[in-house]
Write a structure and sequence with these properties.
6 strands; alpha+beta; 176 residues
Length: 176
Amino acid sequence: MDANQEITISLPNPIYAQAQALAAARGLTLNALLNHALEQLVQPELSPTPSGSHSTTPVQIRQGDVFWLHLDHPDSVTTGVAHPHVVIQDDLFNQSRVPTVLVCALTSNRKRATEPGNVLLQAGEANLSKVSVLLVSQISAVNKSELGAYIGSLSPQRIEQMLDGLRFQQAGYFGR
């Protein structure tokens, strides 16, 4: 059994409030959330993956989580460049042995917000540094191990908007 070290930390009020909200949303105590966050920061530095890269994928992936992701498609102009992506897959599958996860791309191109079903996110939402647009038409299935650094999580209201946009986008395939 590992020994624990008790510490005291000081956080800016906005970070503390965000941490409390995230802990509540995930059903965790603030202490458990901070412990998990530190593990995610420190553990990859100590234990590289077999490929030599460092994975920062959380133990539990949840719908609405935002991660950095490299999608290397040969026809893409952004090959090799990481972009934020939102997990759209239901938590039933996220918690299962299924090795893949469905994600939607994000862009900072605000003009894309006018496209049907897309969701405009304000800077600061899910810890995003820029105003971003969730692109419901850009869905990818990726291995969970390919998810990069965790950025943050969308609010339940934004997740519902995302799902509404996805339903709207898919209505063309299944009839209205």
